[in-house]
């Protein structure tokens, strides 16, 4: 059987080719079976050879062809041939025009003699020999053409022409075929060549004339002046003795003659165009030459002038839009977009495209350069950004930023696509892809710190979180389509501003040795409080009394110094980690969240925790983290027991829940002058309404207004003054005192006021009760022995206190509930208004002390304030925040190691803008971030979509804030007329002086009985149930700080 063989198809090209370059238009393939297949390859590039094409080929390369169906010419070759033909026609036309002008010029030279000094006709003298070939005239169109005309030194045969001096011009290199034929054809048209001028004898009567310098230097002609200095050159060329030797000799009123000397002779040209004459005069006088020429061209050749300007702009834009040009608009990295600024773009344009910037700026303003920054400045740069984006699709930095702003505002994708067509932004899918690629940037810095932390570095960080709730109202409500309540969790990471070195070998200690007295203010705490309130009262007096402001306004410090004052003004580094699918009310969700965060952010080494990470939040977050740890207490390792985090309560929620309003604010007290609600109506503070958590800042401003007014009243009463306009009798010559002496005088006066309002015996009752083991409040607490409750009458022991109560009630007839204490304050006749105002002043002073401590970054004052808050929380039944204060005091008093306790105290703040008095509490920053994030979710209507894009919202919030700062966008104030705080304080001050509210007048009563105080001491009767609460919630470990169920 014969073997089967497969032959390769042969390809045979037909004669259908381009007549010049040989490009194949069609070929034939022969298959093994002998079948021929004709394939068209480049038929779309083939042009038919017409009669005009045949004539052009004959003219250019002397090729004789006939038009057939099998032949053609490609598009590229046809374009080249047409270009050569056009150039040949231009050269031919120019030479023909020059012939006639040369004859006219010869006549003029022979009819006029420069030596004629009278009107008498002089005999004609020939300047040049009749054998000299005349230089043909070239019609000048602009100042750039005032230069010598260069004509090819080749003849028809291609031989080299000889210069008079014997120099030989380089011969044109000739190639084969088309190149040689084209050169020959071109030379055949050049019938006139550069004149061979003989040496000219000295002719003093022929004037010297100025001509414009040429950038192109040739052997046959050189420029008169150096392009730098404007002096005559030393090279071979025109002989010039001095600038004054150049003259312009008028031939007639409508024309001038210019000439130039060469070694081989002189050449003159007659200028007839009036615009060219102006240009020559501008060049001759040598004053603002460039400006003069530009002004002439601006009026005579606007189109050509604009064309050259467009060419300049085009070249600049090409340069700055090149790849890897490091231009501000082509940097699409995270830093390039999030740190983009108009100033950066402006500087790049000044360096790379100054003329483009000038032209665009002239469209929006007449003042060049533009004022920076201004509306015109932003508009011009924004227009340039859109224009360059149209030229280079990679110049999209500004478009990315605009797209993020549109997404943040809830712009639909279809509207963004419409704007993307105009170059305002990029397409929404492009922005989404960019945001997705930036997810690793959220915690990049934290992970770097974590790696160093694992290796023993002292740099640490902490996490802060809060619940993120949002209600989505449906556009069409049905029984199944109702309002959706979405519950997520927002987390941020904050790098500790103050580095605390770890003390090796410090174990976790318990607080068994701490008693209930350690959780309330001590004598040292009261002394510190008096110094701090002295500062606050002095600042209040200076700000609201004009005489004190003039004396002490410039010398009294605005910051109360503390141990970390130097670091309080440093900016902090905080990073939003995005939203997490976690409902903090559900323990299972919190456990899953902590497991994910433990895996990523808890520093570990060999499977063990290197050090715990603080996790801050409000009281609910603090409690739920402890509940999750309690649920996982039986796990094998510390990581599985979620002991990588230590929860803590933050300060903003402490301020909001101090509950001063529960003791002093009631809407039924509007009839009682001197009450908070009365002054709310007096000052027309209509934003003070509803719950405090919804109008916290409005309530705070109202109470602070009353506090400042009382400070001023007490200060005036110190000098026995009854009017705010009275002159305070300060010591004579106080202005001549040293600054320290002046401050000491003011602090002494304010310190006396504080000691009267906050004496040491203010907490005496509370301290005596908690320290007395025989007091009925301590009856059950003091019976604890080895975690059991011992009977006071026998040796019976019980696990739970309720069992002991039942035992003593049945066996020993003990009934503690029958004991009721009657205070002397209820039996005496008091001044209810004075007690009310003093009590409000004391409570507000504690609140302002904590608030100012947060502003100034004083962590020790913040933690110490928890001891003053504990009795208030107990009295107002704020149980959760009472527990939070007990935990905070215990953590810094022995539960934590020394270095962790210092970390907890020092790093409780965030500083965004810098400055010693510009600190925020950590949870307040999270609340602000929650608000901004909710604004960025306008375009999402489901929980799944929000969770899917949860890591994008921090970038959108950051981009919008950066855009606002870049464009100087200011937030709307919300007031038609901003209220004057000083005027409000003055109104309250005058009213308090008129009613003598701070003078004790027994028998004065209030109509609203709900705000009547038992005494002016808000800490009286705060001990009820306090020892039991402290003993029940005193933590032994930093984890699982839940109540003692045996209590």
From TrEMBL:
Tell me which residues make up the C2H2-type domain. Answer: 791-812
Protein name as catalogued: C2H2-type domain-containing protein
Q: Which organism is it from?
A: Mya arenaria (Soft-shell clam)
Specify the taxonomic lineage. Eukaryota, Metazoa, Spiralia, Lophotrochozoa, Mollusca
């Amino acid at each position: 059987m014969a073997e089967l063989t497969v032959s390769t198809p042969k390809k045979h090209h037909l004669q259908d080719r381009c007549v010049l370059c040989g490009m194949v238009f069609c070929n034939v393939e022969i298959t093994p079976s002998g079948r021929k297949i004709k394939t068209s390859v480049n038929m779309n590039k083939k042009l038919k050879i017409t009669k005009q094409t045949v004539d052009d080929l004959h003219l250019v390369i002397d090729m004789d062809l006939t038009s057939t169906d099998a032949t053609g010419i490609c598009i590229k070759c046809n374009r080249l041939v047409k270009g050569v033909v056009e150039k040949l026609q231009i050269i031919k036309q120019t030479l023909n025009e020059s012939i006639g002008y040369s004859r006219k010029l010869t006549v003029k030279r022979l009819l006029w003699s420069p030596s004629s000094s009278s009107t008498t006709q002089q005999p004609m003298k020939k300047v040049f020999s009749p054998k000299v070939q005349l230089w043909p005239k070239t019609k000048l169109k602009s100042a750039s053409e005032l230069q010598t005309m260069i004509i090819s030194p080749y003849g028809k045969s291609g031989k080299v022409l000889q210069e008079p001096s014997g120099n030989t011009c380089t011969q044109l290199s000739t190639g084969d075929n088309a190149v040689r034929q084209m050169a020959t054809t071109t030379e055949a048209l050049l019938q006139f060549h550069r004149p061979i001028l003989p040496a000219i004898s000295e002719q003093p009567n022929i004037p010297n004339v100025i001509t414009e310098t040429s950038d192109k230097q040739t052997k046959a002609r050189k420029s008169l002046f150096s392009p730098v200095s404007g002096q005559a050159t030393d090279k071979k060329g025109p002989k010039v003795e001095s600038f004054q030797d150049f003259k312009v000799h008028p031939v007639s009123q409508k024309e001038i003659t210019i000439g130039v000397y060469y070694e081989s002779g002189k050449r003159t040209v007659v200028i007839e165009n009036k615009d060219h004459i102006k240009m020559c005069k501008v060049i001759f006088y040598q004053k603002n030459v460039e400006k003069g020429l530009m002004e002439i061209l601006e009026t005579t050749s606007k189109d050509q002038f604009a064309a050259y300007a467009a060419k300049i702009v085009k070249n600049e834009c090409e340069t700055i839009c090149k790849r890897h040009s490091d231009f501000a608009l082509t940097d699409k990295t995270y830093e390039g977009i999030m740190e983009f600024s108009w100033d950066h773009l402006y500087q790049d344009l000044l360096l790379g495209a100054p003329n483009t910037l000038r032209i665009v700026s002239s469209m929006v303003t007449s003042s060049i350069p533009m004022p920076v920054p201004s509306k015109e400045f932003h508009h011009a740069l924004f227009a340039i950004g859109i224009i360059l984006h149209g030229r280079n699709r990679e110049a999209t930095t500004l478009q990315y930023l605009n797209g993020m702003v549109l997404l943040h505002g809830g712009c639909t994708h279809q509207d963004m696509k419409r704007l993307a067509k105009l170059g305002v932004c990029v397409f929404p899918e492009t922005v989404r892809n960019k945001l997705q690629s930036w997810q690793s940037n959220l915690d990049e810095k934290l992970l770097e710190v974590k790696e160093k932390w694992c290796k023993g570095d002292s740099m640490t960080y902490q996490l802060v979180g809060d619940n993120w709730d949002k209600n989505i109202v449906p556009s069409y409500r049905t029984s199944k389509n109702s309002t959706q309540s979405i519950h997520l969790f927002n987390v941020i990471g904050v790098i500790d501003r103050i580095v605390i070195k770890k003390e090796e070998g410090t174990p976790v200690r318990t607080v068994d040795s701490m008693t209930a007295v350690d959780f309330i203010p001590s004598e040292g705490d009261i002394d510190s409080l008096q110094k701090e309130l002295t500062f606050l009262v002095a600042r209040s007096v200076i700000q609201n009394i004009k005489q004190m402001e003039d004396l002490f306004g410039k010398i009294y410090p605005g910051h109360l110094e503390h141990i970390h004052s130097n670091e309080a003004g440093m900016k902090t580094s905080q990073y939003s980690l995005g939203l997490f699918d976690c409902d903090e009310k559900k323990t299972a969700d919190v456990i899953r969240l902590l497991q994910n965060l433990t895996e990523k952010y808890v520093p570990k080494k060999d499977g063990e925790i290197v050090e715990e990470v603080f996790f801050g939040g409000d009281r609910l977050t603090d409690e739920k983290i402890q509940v999750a740890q309690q649920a996982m207490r039986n796990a094998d390792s510390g990581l599985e027991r979620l002991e990588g985090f230590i929860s803590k309560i933050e300060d903003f929620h402490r301020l909001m829940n101090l509950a001063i309003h529960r003791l002093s604010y009631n809407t039924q007290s509007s009839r009682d002058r001197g009450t908070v609600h009365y002054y709310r109506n007096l000052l027309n503070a209509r934003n003070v309404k509803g719950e405090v958590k919804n109008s916290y800042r409005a309530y705070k401003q109202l109470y602070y207004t009353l506090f400042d007014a009382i400070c001023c009243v007490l200060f005036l009463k110190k000098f026995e003054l009854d009017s705010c306009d009275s002159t305070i009798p300060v010591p004579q010559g106080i202005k001549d005192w040293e600054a320290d002496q002046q401050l000491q005088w003011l602090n002494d006066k304010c310190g006396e006021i504080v000691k009267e309002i906050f004496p040491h015996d203010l907490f005496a009752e509370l301290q005596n009760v908690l320290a007395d083991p025989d007091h009925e409040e301590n009856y059950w607490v003091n019976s604890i022995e080895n975690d059991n409750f011992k009977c006071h009458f026998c040796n019976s022991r019980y696990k739970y206190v309720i069992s002991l109560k039942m035992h003593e009630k049945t066996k020993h007839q003990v009934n503690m509930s029958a004991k009721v204490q009657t205070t002397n304050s209820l039996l005496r006749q008091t001044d209810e208004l004075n007690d009310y105002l003093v009590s409000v002043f004391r409570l507000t002073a504690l609140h302002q002390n904590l608030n100012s401590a947060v502003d100034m970054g004083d962590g020790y004052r913040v933690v110490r304030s928890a001891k003053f808050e504990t009795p208030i929380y107990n009295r107002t039944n704020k149980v959760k925040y009472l527990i939070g204060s007990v935990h905070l005091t215990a953590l810094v008093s022995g539960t934590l190691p020394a270095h962790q306790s210092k970390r907890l105290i020092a790093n409780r703040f965030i500083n965004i803008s810098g400055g010693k008095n510009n600190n925020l509490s950590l949870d307040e920053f999270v609340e602000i971030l929650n608000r901004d994030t909710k604004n960025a979710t306008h375009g999402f209507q489901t929980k799944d979509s929000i969770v899917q894009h949860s890591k994008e919202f921090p970038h959108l919030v950051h981009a919008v804030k950066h855009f606002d700062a870049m464009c100087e966008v200011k937030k709307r104030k919300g007031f038609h007329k901003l209220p004057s705080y000083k005027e409000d304080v003055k109104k309250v001050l005058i009213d308090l002086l008129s009613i003598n509210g701070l003078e004790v007048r027994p028998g004065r009563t209030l109509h609203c009985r709900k705000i009547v105080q038992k005494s002016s001491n808000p800490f009286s009767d705060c001990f009820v149930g306090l020892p039991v609460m402290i003993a029940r919630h005193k933590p032994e470990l930093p984890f699982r700080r839940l109540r003692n169920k045996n209590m």
